């Protein structure tokens, strides 16, 4: 009997220890900062925010149109600059390096990513009245929140999710993830207030963001606001390689 009690106590302590470790290191599971491969005075702009100056990969262009891009959790957005510049020659391009990524100082958190996104939008909107926003994977949560707070003209969400906390809860079902997570990225909370044309792009074989999460997010928008397009033969990391991906973006933007 005593041995059983000791064993149960050990299991409880082990479980509590695992919960503490999950709470303490949770952001290391969510963010994977990358250095910038393409950085130079002609392609990098600094964004002054509270406590930091962030790097923004840019392709300047005069005119009313601009495109802001928020990347995935392990993405060096600077590598996308030539692609976006070629695909959208009539847009000024702004690709945000999150805190800790690509020469931006600090460490990323949900609150900081969202406030930094608003600061970037305000800077861009002062120069370009027609600002489209594109968010991929983790960045889709940043983009949804921004579109609920600022007058974006169009919104595109690539491999988006309904809620990061819901994804984590299903991945770690034995832990009280909903209590432990601080960065929840609950896009479903912000989608209902968005009124601009919104396109959700899903990969047919996405092995990172389950299809049910993308489908659930689409239902959160008001009727007639959001549409869903599935890019065939692609997964989470190859969706942008498909010609149909570029076609869908051009049609939306």
From TrEMBL:
Pfam families: Abhydrolase_1. It comes from the Bacteria. This is AB hydrolase-1 domain-containing protein. It comes from Hydrogenophaga taeniospiralis CCUG 15921. Residues 85-174 form the AB hydrolase-1 domain.
């Amino acid at each position: 009997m005593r041995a059983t009690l000791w064993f149960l106590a050990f299991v409880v302590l082990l479980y509590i220890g695992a919960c503490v470790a999950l709470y303490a290191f949770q952001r290391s599971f969510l963010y994977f900062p990358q250095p910038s491969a393409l950085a130079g005075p002609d392609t990098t702009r600094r964004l002054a925010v509270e406590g930091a100056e962030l790097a923004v990969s840019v392709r300047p262009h005069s005119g009313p149109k601009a495109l802001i891009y928020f990347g995935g959790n392990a993405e060096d957005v600077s590598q996308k600059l030539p692609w976006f510049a070629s695909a959208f020659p009539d847009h000024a391009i702004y690709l945000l390096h999150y805190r800790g990524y690509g020469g931006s100082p600090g460490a990323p958190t949900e609150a900081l990513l969202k406030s930094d996104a608003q600061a970037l939008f305000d800077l861009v909107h002062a120069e370009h009245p027609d600002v489209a926003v594109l968010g991929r994977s983790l960045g889709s949560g940043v983009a949804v929140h921004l579109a609920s707070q600022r007058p974006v003209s169009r919104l595109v969400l690539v491999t988006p999710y309904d809620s990061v906390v819901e994804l984590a809860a299903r991945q770690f079902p034995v832990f009280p993830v909903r209590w432990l997570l601080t960065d929840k990225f609950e896009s479903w909370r912000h989608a209902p207030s968005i009124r601009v044309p919104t396109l959700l792009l899903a990969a047919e074989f996405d092995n990172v963001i389950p299809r049910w999460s993308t489908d659930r997010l689409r239902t959160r928008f008001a009727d007639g606001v959001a549409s869903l397009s599935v890019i065939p033969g692609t997964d989470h990391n190859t969706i942008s390689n498909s010609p149909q991906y570029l076609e869908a973006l051009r049609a939306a933007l």
